[in-house]
Fold this sequence. Notes:
mainly alpha; transmembrane helix
Amino acid sequence: MKNDNINTLFKELDFDISEPASGHKDRFKKKLEEQHSQSKKQKHGRLTRNLWGPLFSIAAVLAIAFTVFTGIFNENSIQNKGDLASVSPQMKETKQFYTQLIETELKALNAENSPETEAIINDALTQLKKLENEYKKLEKDLRDSGQDKRVIYAMISNFQQRIDLLNEVLEQIDNIKSLKNQSNENYI
């Protein structure tokens, strides 16, 4: 019974059981080879596109890194332009002169440190810090103003104020010493 149903089914479907035309096998192989070569070309094209993606990514990362580093170096050069030494060679010499003079005066001030002079020295160091903070503001103003001469004069004046302050403090310390020596001589 089951075989009868299957046989009738096959008879109704009308299968083409004729032999293929001559050269069919060769044409079929040729079509397969063409499809195979086209798929190779497509894979090669995809491979090429797949290689470009990472290369573009690397190029983008390098471009960003270059931009960031260039920005940092430009920022550092801009910061250096706010310094008095960046204005001209003469200003560089002036800054070096005042800086060395202030260092010398500070060494002399620290050499005079004693219990009698400690309060005066601490006050002088506080005043120096204020003047240094003002100088830093002047450096920013110099960057912002494009090397305005008034700012340059204010910076030089700041150096002079620091030196004057240190000289005054050293004179006061000398006065304290001389008063101490006089009182010790009177006591003897």
